[in-house]
Amino acid sequence: MLRLRALSGEQLFVVNPLEQTSSDSVLNTLRSMVAGHFGILQGRVDLHSMDESRPIGRCVVWQNSEHFLAGQDLDVLMLLRPFRSGCEDELVSAIQREDGNYVDRLLASWVDPNVDLTDYGGLRRRVRWTPLCFAAQIPGANCRIAASLLAARATFETEKTALCCACSVYNVQMAQFLVFCLADVNRRDWRMDSPLLIAASMGSRSLVQVLLRNAADVTQEDGLGRGPIERCFMDSSIEPVLSLMRARATVRPYTHNCHLLHQAAERGSHRWVACLVRARASPELRDALGHLPLDVALRRSGFRRRAQFRRCLAGLELEEDMTTRTKSRGRIAA
Q1: In the prediction, which pLDDT does 89 show?
Q2: Are the CB atoms for 63 and 72 separated by under 8 Å?
Q3: Strand 2-5, strand 11-15: pairing
Q4: Is position 237 within any domain?
Q5: Which of 173, 177, 207, 275 is positioned for an S-S bond with 199, CB 3.0–4.6 A?
Q6: In a domain, 172, yes or no
Q7: How far, CA to CA in Å, does 326 sit from each of 105, 322, 329, 334?
Q8: Rounded (10°) CA dihedral 230, 236, 239, 245
Q9: Which domain holds residue 24?
Q10: One domain, residues 17 and 35
Q11: Predicted local distance difference test score (pLDDT) of residue 333
């Protein structure tokens, strides 16, 4: 048996040579096991036989393991190459310049892809920032840099997630890339905001659609009990709401001032009223003064506008609007 031990003497793995593929390299197999277990690059792993009389050469395969085992167990010492320190400024500068070649050279020289950049630039941020967070917040074709960082085992999930960073600056291309690389679409940041809530606040239908196509949870709420529809309403962005409604998102219980329907009626937006009713906002809910949404809407001057609000609150206006759009698209296609 081969017993892999850390420098402290702790036993990490026990490997049976008979269970390995006979033509595989012994050192490569052991490095692969260690790297997979700890989530690091194989190049950082150094292995040394603890018995000088039984060294493990680079070309030794499992088929010939009896030559260095000699019928006895062998302890193998595992060491990790340390990352270089003091290269944070160079790495961030290269990311900001979108200089992918220089980023690759720095990572190849053992610069930590997860170096803590919380205090970078003299700013004391509340949460831990990583190079991947910086790359996600730079607009443009910087997915190559993110790919290099991920290949060097950069982590997605910190208190400020890379996907949340991409959504906060409308970086649709980066968000698509991170989702493709299996970033968690429902992972929240330190403010308890998720990528979907941030995308809704930004009013970006493209980002919302990317997240919904990858199973983002439409029932999420922020720290104030607001869901994605409420966050869209704050930004007055109605386009993402149409995608959210198709994903069966509903209005969450709202706790500030008055119900969303009252606010939409006060704004004079019949389209918002229609959307909210379709998203299961109750037209029967009264505000602090005992007014229904219809009471607020009726304060609007003009018979035609008041009639339009009645139709919206009955859930008719949006249905007719969507039917008209569908027919128009059919004519264009024909």
Answers
A1: 87
A2: no
A3: antiparallel
A4: no
A5: 207
A6: yes
A7: 53, 6, 5, 12
A8: 20
A9: 2-80
A10: yes
A11: 46
Clarify whether residues 160 and 122 are in a common domain.
Answer: yes
Q: Nearest 5°: CA angle at 68, between 64 and 72? A: 115
Residue 226 placed within a domain:
no
Burial of 316 by CB count in 10 Å (0-12 exposed, 13-18 middle, 19+ buried)? middle
What pLDDT score was predicted for residue 104? 94
Number of domains the chain is built from: 2
109 and 180: one domain?
A: yes
User: Does 323 reside within a domain?
Assistant: no
Please state, in angstroms and rounded to a whole number, the distance separating the CA atoms of residues 233 and 267: 11
Q: What pLDDT, on the 0 to 100 scale, is given for residue 302?
A: 60
What is the pTM for the complete model shown? 0.76
Per-run averaged pLDDT (10 residues), the chain, 334 residues: 85 86 87 86 84 80 76 84 85 90 92 82 64 85 86 80 91 93 90 93 94 94 89 87 91 64 82 85 82 78 67 61 48 44
Q: Residue 106: its pLDDT value, please?
A: 93
State the Cα–Cα distance between residues 278 and 261, nearest whole angstrom: 11
Question: Within this chain, do residues 51 and 64 fall inside the same structural domain, yes or no?
Answer: yes
Structure tokens of 80? 């990790």
pLDDT score, position 159 = 66
Q: DSSP letter string over 67-128?
A: HHHTTS-EEEEEEEPPPBSS-HHHHHHHHHTT-HHHHHHHHHTTB-TT---TTGGG---SS-
Residue ending a domain, among 28, 61, 80, is 80
Task: Examine the fold and report which residue of 150, 184, 218 is the final residue of a domain before the chain moves on.
Answer: 184
What is the rounded CA–CA span in Å between residue 163 and residue 137? Answer: 9
Q: Give me the phi and psi of 283, to 5 degrees please.
A: -70, -10
pLDDT of 329: 47
